[in-house]
Structure formats: structure tokens, C-alpha cells
Amino acid sequence: MANLYVKAVPPTDLNRNTEWFTYPGVWTTYILILFFSWLVVHSVFGCSPGMAWTIVHLCHFLVTYQFFHWKKGTPFAEDQGIYNRLTWWEQIDSGKQLTRNRKFLTVVPVVLYLIASHTTDYQHPMLFFNTLAVFVLVVAKFPHMHKVRIFGINADHTCMVSDYWFPSKARTVNHIGPRSCNDSAFWGSRCC
């Protein structure tokens, strides 16, 4: 009687926003997308291979920084807002640090940097842009940077009551319990 049920392995990630990255073949697809992006840039723009790698590296920086380290939350409503204050990087692998996926996503910009820098013969303007891009991406991926907002950039701030509602002075609203700027029951549609 005890063998009637199947012993299934639980999924590694219950977050629908990040579970796709645990599927087999995602790493290979990621690398192929980068390589085919290089082919497209190299053939369409007719630039040197080094310049094409630099363009791919900088585009990779812009896209991954925006979607991995800047944009917060998930596009799915069933998570009931538990990921609203977390970036995709903070959500991946349920927030565990130094996992295989995180290491892979840290190594990719470094390898792109090495390829782009070497193929441009370490020329000054390209080397500067490549170094800046890899520095920002790798520092953003450090375990010590988990949930850290430098200088409060992209942080969840407390709302200020503006001069629009109280023309005499702007002041911080003190209320019981934490409220976010997006709490429409408290603020209505106009907030921050």
C-alpha cells in the first residue's frame, strides 16, 4: 500500500518569474543568442569583429541591468505581491547565493568583456566602456549587494504629502504600519 504514490521531486523554484531559468538548455540558448547577436551586428553594420563584440557586450549590459537588476516584481498576480520589492536577480534560485545559475550569469559578462577587449586590441575608448559595463554588472551580482540600493537609487521610499494636497507645507505622513507608495486604498491614484 505504501508504494501507491509517486515520489516526485519538488520543483527547484516556485516563482514563475524565475523558474524558466532552471530548465535544461537555457544556458546554451543564452550563449547562442549572444553569438547570433554578434553575427547580426557584424554582418548588418559591417564593423570589425572587435567593435561588434563591444556592441553586443554593451547591449547585453543595458538589457541585463534593466531586467535583472533594476526592474522589480513579477508579471504574475498569483504571487500576491511577495516579490514586488525584489529584482529578478534577487528572486532567482529563491534568493540563495552562489548557485550554479548565479555563477553562470556572473561569468557571462566577464567572458564577453574578455572577448570584446581582446578583439579590440585593448584600444582606449572601447576598453573603457567594456570595463565600466563589466564592473557595474559584476558588482551588482555580488552576494553582499543582495537587496542593497546604492544611494537609495531604485529603493522603495516613504511617500511625501506634496504641496498639491497641503499647500502650507510638505511633510511626511505618519501612519500605523508600513504603507507603500502604491497603496491605492490610502493614497488614491495620485502618489509620489
From TrEMBL:
Subcellular location(s) per record: Membrane
Keyword set, alphabetical order: Membrane, Transmembrane, Transmembrane helix
GO terms for cellular component: endoplasmic reticulum membrane
InterPro entries: ORMDL
Cited Pfam families: ORMDL
Topology of this chain in the membrane: Multi-pass membrane protein
Transmembrane stretches, start-end: 20-41, 126-143
Top-level division of the source organism's lineage: Eukaryota
Protein name (database record): ORM1-like protein 3
Organism: Camellia sinensis var. sinensis (China tea)
